[in-house]
């Protein structure tokens, strides 16, 4: 059995035991991303991998996990952030007083 952690917007964590690996679907082709972050208020899913930062619409990630869109559709929705600034060293997000911050 695997232990799965699911976070909530209010930083409450729920634990569940996962028995069926078939319930998960790989939707992004990244090898060992450094960080990932979902920001529902902006409908963004951020991936920091190999010193680059990528953004996907969060709803497209959810739809891809259900098999409703293709990998090509997901790739077409991808945006590379901070490209003109060079390598991205880290990704950190947080929410303070109702404001979402990122660094």
Question: Can I get a quick summary?
Answer:
The protein is mainly β.
Overall description:
The protein has helices at residues 58-65, 71-77; strands at 2-7, 13-18, 35-39, 44-49, 52-57, 79-81, 93-96, 99-102. It has one domain (27-102). The protein contains two helices and eight strands, in the order βββββααβββ. The protein starts with a strand and ends with a strand. The strands form three sheets. The protein has a four-stranded antiparallel beta sheet with strand order 3-4-5-6. It is 15% helix and 39% strand. The chain is mainly beta and 103 residues long.
The Rg value, from CA coordinates, equals: 15 Å
Main beta sheet, described?
A: 4 strands, antiparallel
Number of helices: 2
**Sheet with the most strands: spatial strand order:** 3-4-5-6
Q: How many structural domains can be distinguished in the coordinates?
A: 1
Which structural category do the helix and sheet elements fall into?
mainly beta
The arrangement of helices and strands along the chain is EEEEEHHEEE
Name the overall outline. Answer: globular
Report the average pLDDT across residues.
Answer: 75
Fraction of residues in H or I helices: 10-25%
Distance between the termini: 35 Å
- Spans of 5+ residues with little confidence (pLDDT < 50)? 1-21
Number of strands: 8
Strand content: 35-45%
